[in-house]
Amino acid sequence: MGAASGTLTEMRELKTEVTGLRTELKRFIERANQQHVEGVLGDLKKNYSELFTNHQVENAKADLSAHMVKDCRMRDKCYEVFMDFLQNTSRHIKEGQVSDEIIQSYREQMKTMRSKGPYDRCDTCFSEVHRLFEKQIDLMQSLGIYAKTREAGETNLEIPDEAVVKDLLEPVANIQRFQILKSLAIQTRTFSDISQLTGLRGGNLLFHIRKLADSGMILQRHERGDYVITDKGYKTMTAISQLYQLLNP
């Protein structure tokens, strides 16, 4: 009886040790994955920041030309002012870091510029500038260059329904896209790797990859290059993992 009781105690202790080892191993893997993601993002910022910056500027030129009010005598002058602003903001992609204070100062600068617009239809042009600026911010966040700070204890439940569904929930609410994101959290993958992982081919696979890319969760190093998870994508996977464990203790 005593021997059986001793064995049972040893088994409990062993189980406790195994549970502890599992927890430590899980933490180690999470740290390793985080270091991997940070390394990949660092490589992207170092080697492709100029490419990203130039792409943003060229897109801004084309989009402003296409969407600014056509029959306005101030169009050319405003175009130059807007491009100076967007080129100035895009330089932070090259620099590799931008603070929340700087981003807010640019927002104030846009408000000041808008207050000087003499016409009601100026809203059309300023809306386009605002959209292009927010697009730059999305890229900065995806590359880990910019992270919006939140005051201690602040909880914001006024989350935008449509944006959360479109940019966060919908991209991961598909088993193939979830598999892609989970695999990229471990290492970079080629198109062929992802095809083999998901069982999807050609246009079907490209649809899901674009869905994740459009949401800012993954990036392609360059044309025909490997796919990598972004800071947003990794944080999304981490949050989902933590939520799952919280709901399934």
Offer a quick outline of the entry:
With 249 residues, this protein is mostly helical.
Describe it.
By secondary structure, the chain is mainly α. The protein folds into two domains: 46-143; 161-247, Arc Repressor Mutant, subunit A. It is built from nine helices and two strands. It has a two-stranded antiparallel sheet with strand order 1-2. Strand 1 (218-220) and strand 2 form a beta hairpin. Helix 1 (2-67) packs antiparallel against helix 2 (75-95), helix 2 (75-95) runs parallel beside helix 4 and helix 6 packs across helix 8 (202-214). The longest helix has 66 residues, at 2-67.
Distance N to C terminus: 34 Å
| Tally of individual helices | 9
Low-confidence stretches: none
What percentage of the residues does DSSP assign to strands (E)? under 5%
Rough outline: elongated
- How is the biggest beta sheet arranged? 2 strands, antiparallel
Q: Can you lay out the helices and strands and say which pair or pack?
A:
Blueprint: H1 2-67, H2 75-95, H3 100-115, H4 122-142, H5 161-172, H6 175-184, H7 191-198, H8 202-214, E1 218-220, E2 227-229, H9 231-247
Antiparallel strand pairs: 1-2
Helix pairs in contact: 1-2, 1-4, 2-4, 6-8
